[in-house]
């Protein structure tokens, strides 16, 4: 029976992933309704403000939902938001038992949905494939717990750890397949973030150039407003906004950038630059739950030292630069190997000849 329950929850996870990148600021959720060993209803949360996964699954099951087993990746909600409580919908349908992958970390729910089910006499089982259920909603979990975005640091390197040659050339280190994957990541995060140096050198668009791809918000960390109003990311036609974080109070520069369509956000200052912790709080208040950090090395290095990176995506191409090429994390590093940042939950994937290492930091620094 355990194997069958896990099989049904894995199906719910497959459904939940269909909503990743489309439900923010809500979580991605999948739901499966089962009766007599067969799936009779499926659903997933498709977009914020629309019916939740449980509602879609119950509608598909119809009257057969009475007495059925329900597998849902996240605790059913118990509060009225833009849609009615899913816990009430399950009670009204008369389901027999509910398997929830994890308790909702949102304080508005956090156990209340499961309690509502139990009060109605519905058997509740929680924690089925909890790790997998948490992974698909890492940004939502981080945001509701801290008010800050979940930051994914992406870097493309040669095998000797260089993101560019000494002259600054970096096109292209990785394969077309790797770069297409990065564009698919851009389409599911809320924002992509780079430093002003990357804009000056590469003049990127920072769009998701895949079929039906949704462009993320573009966040440029530009302490002194060095970015030119003619930068391509300010000229591109896109439904996504551009936010420039700065400590500058140069009214003329701000006016030119705002005229070009950007929103300029003045942040607290730290050592003459944008205080990145303050910026993360500001972006979190703007309902940005996930950020793909794409460079450059100075920004990535400061984010690393500040303990603001939650996940690493490190691409390695079978090339060697040697000499004075640039590494992915600039600025001051540790002096002793014992103080090096340790990574955990390492996984490896191939993209043609490239290797992608996905990892999480072992410890996070204080962000208060």
Describe the structure.
By secondary structure, the protein is α/β, with parallel strands linked by helices. The chain is built from twelve helices and 16 strands. The longest helix has 16 residues, at 2-17. It is globular.
Task: Detail the topology: elements first, then pairings.
Elements (H helix, E strand, L loop, with lengths): L1 H16 L12 E6 L2 E7 L8 H9 L7 E4 L13 H8 L3 E4 L11 H8 L3 E4 L3 H6 L2 H9 L3 E9 L17 H11 L4 E5 H7 L14 E5 L10 H4 L6 E5 L4 H9 L3 E4 L2 E2 L2 E2 L1 H10 L4 E6 L1 H9 L5 E7 L25 E9 L2 E8 L7
Parallel strand pairs: 3-4, 4-5, 6-13, 6-14, 7-8, 7-13, 8-9, 9-10
Antiparallel strand pairs: 1-2, 1-3, 11-12, 14-16, 15-16
Helix pairs in contact: 3-4
Provide a brief overview of the structure.
The protein contains twelve helices and 16 strands.
